[in-house]
């Protein structure tokens, strides 16, 4: 039994996963697990894909590496995919969304190649991540939040923080008399 929840934070690159996780880690004490960083630092990959400019992730190795930490609870699991994380690990899935113009500007300022940029914009327009989340987890634990403006970010962080507080109360171990 976990006494602190695990939250998957997902969405197309550039929607604001890292920024939200950093704020949430400060506000809730949950730990930010950046899957990109873990893949890189712990070698959970089978090499570098030049075409996509990303690691070819070894999913089994990644899950083995994360297991002990995640099973204890209290993790913000930050990645642009979500279907690989076992259901038993996950208490909430947050899918961040952004509109095309906003996402275009954010990815452009990261110097994404045009093909990669377009692929990510298409993925966002075609609801790829929200579908993946709904296909992989019970619908009542999947929420979709807009992340275009700093006001929306503030609201999102408040809302998730409130959810964490409530989850923690609801799942507190029963006191023994
Ligand atoms: P991700 O981790 O999903 O790739 P990020 O957190 O690195 O995205 O954010 C990309 C950029 O966009 C970064 O400069 C912060 C900015 N950003 C993200 N969400 C935002 C929001 N809701 N309002 C304003 N800026 C935001």
Automatic annotation (TrEMBL):
It is an enzyme of class 2 (transferase). This is Adenylate kinase isoenzyme 6 homolog. Belongs to the adenylate kinase family. AK6 subfamily. It holds the Pfam family AAA_18. GO terms for biological process: ribosomal small subunit biogenesis; rRNA processing. PANTHER family: ADENYLATE KINASE ISOENZYME 6, POS9-ACTIVATING FACTOR FAP7-RELATED. It catalyses: ATP + H2O = ADP + phosphate + H(+); AMP + ATP = 2 ADP. Its EC number is 2.7.4.3. Interacts with small ribosomal subunit protein uS11. Not a structural component of 43S pre-ribosomes, but transiently interacts with them by binding to uS11. It comes from Cephalotrichum gorgonifer. The keyword rRNA processing applies. Broad-specificity nucleoside monophosphate (NMP) kinase that catalyzes the reversible transfer of the terminal phosphate group between nucleoside triphosphates and monophosphates. Has also ATPase activity. Involved in the late cytoplasmic maturation steps of the 40S ribosomal particles, specifically 18S rRNA maturation. While NMP activity is not required for ribosome maturation, ATPase activity is. Associates transiently with small ribosomal subunit protein uS11. ATP hydrolysis breaks the interaction with uS11. It is found in: Cytoplasm; Nucleus. Keywords: ATP-binding, Cytoplasm, Kinase, Nucleotide-binding, Nucleus, Ribosome biogenesis, rRNA processing, Transferase. Residues 109-119 are annotated as: LID. GO terms for cellular component: cytoplasm; nucleus. It comes from the Eukaryota. The keyword Cytoplasm applies. SUPFAM superfamilies: P-loop containing nucleoside triphosphate hydrolases. InterPro entries: Adenyl_kinase_AK6, P-loop_NTPase. Residues 34-57 are annotated as: NMPbind. One of its GO terms (molecular function) is ATP binding. ATP binds at residues 14, 16-19, 110. Its main location: cytoplasm.
